[in-house]
Every structure is written in structure tokens, then in C-alpha cells.
Design goal:
It contains 9 helices and no strands. It is mostly helical.
């Protein structure tokens, strides 16, 4: 059942991603570049970008894994699993995100604005050639969805997903990513904690 749902979600994601790449990404990016650049909303989104960068998420993840290790050593396994799920979700999601970025080598919006280049370079590491998926979005959804799995309160899950979505949208506003990039990041971010618990229930079970 889990495999079947994963395949369905993967097919749906691929279809949505292709549709956005072909018809939706460019118009939205160009509109944002023309109408949102250096506005108050843009400034707010820059602050979100700076405070919730992938490096900051990575630091938080490492710290939480240290806490999880300390709790496990003192016999507090339930709390240790919760911290471990949060930290591992972020780290694993960011690793997957980095691999996808390098393999796809998608041009960032700035390349469209300045050089009229759009699409995929493939197998690239330069900053302007690793747009997809969004690292900020991946980390936000991975960490916050893992937290929601631990807390298990519907209203908190909704609140955390709203926060993650705001972070994702901020990347579009500042034209750092295309919409499909943040959709890709959200997809990786949500699936990562779900499948970590599925494959490592004794080590990372949220209960």
C-alpha cells in the first residue's frame, strides 16, 4: 500500500512539475521580477530567506541529533526518537535536494532575466544552475512536517504547513526559484520524514 501511494504521488508530482516547467513557471517569475522586486513584500521575504537559510536548518538539525543522542544515552528513548526524526528528516531531505539540484542543473530565474536562458543544464554545481528543487523549501517542509508528525495535533499541523508554505512562497517572491522548484522541495520535504519512520520505525518512530 505504501509503495502504491508513493507511485501515485510520484506520478502526480511529475505531471504537475512538467506542466509548471512548460507553461507556468516563466510567466510567474517574470511577473514577480517586474512587480515585486524591491517592494516591502520583497524585503520581508529577504529576511525570511536570511533567517531560515538551508545552513541554519542544517545547524539546527545537527544540534537536535546531538540532543537525541544525549537523551538516548540517558534512557529517554521516546524523546530521543522525536528529536532524531526532526534532525534526520532535515539532513536526509537536504542531501536528496542537493543530488537533485546537481543532476537537473536547472537555470535559476536570474539566468532568464539576464541571459534569456531557461531550462536544464544537467549535472551542474554553479549557484545559478541549481535552481530545482528549492533548498529552503525542502528543509522547511522536512523539519516542520516531522515536527507535526511528532506533535500529532491537526491544528498544529495546519499551522506548521502554513509556515512552510510562506517560506516556500518567499523564494518565488525574491525570484530565487520558480514555482515548480518549491513544489519539488515541498514534495521531498514531506515524503522524507514519512518514509524515514516507515523504514526505521524502531529508531525514528514518532510515538
Amino acid at each position: 500500500m505504501r509503495t502504491g501511494r508513493f507511485l501515485l504521488s510520484l506520478i502526480a508530482f511529475v505531471v504537475i512539475y512538467i506542466v509548471f516547467v512548460l507553461w507556468i513557471d516563466r510567466p510567474i517569475a517574470l511577473w514577480a521580477h517586474q512587480h515585486l522586486l524591491y517592494t516591502q513584500l520583497y524585503d520581508v521575504c529577504i529576511e525570511i530567506q536570511n533567517w531560515l537559510s538551508t545552513s541554519h536548518w542544517g545547524i539546527v538539525a545537527i544540534l537536535t541529533l546531538c540532543i537525541a543522542t544525549s537523551l538516548a544515552l540517558t534512557g529517554k528513548n521516546r524523546n530521543a526518537k522525536r528529536w532524531a526524526l526532526f534532525g534526520c528528516s532535515i539532513i536526509v531531505a537536504l542531501v536528496l535536494c542537493f543530488v537533485c539540484k546537481v543532476v537537473l542543473g536547472r537555470y535559476r530565474p536570474v539566468m532568464l532575466f539576464e541571459h534569456h536562458q531557461y531550462g536544464f543544464h544537467f549535472f551542474a554545481t554553479k549557484h545559478n544552475l541549481v535552481s530545482s528543487p528549492s533548498g529552503h523549501t525542502t528543509a522547511a517542509f522536512a523539519g516542520l512536517y516531522a515536527l507535526a508528525m511528532v506533535i500529532k495535533r491537526n491544528w498544529i499541523t495546519v499551522l506548521l504547513m502554513i509556515v512552510a508554505t510562506v517560506i516556500a512562497l518567499s523564494r518565488i517572491v525574491v525570484t530565487a526559484h520558480y514555482p515548480s522548484d518549491v513544489i519539488f522541495g515541498a514534495y521531498i520535504g514531506i515524503l522524507t520524514p514519512v518514509y524515514l519512520v516507515h523504514f526505521f520505525p524502531k529508531l525514528l518512530g514518532a510515538n
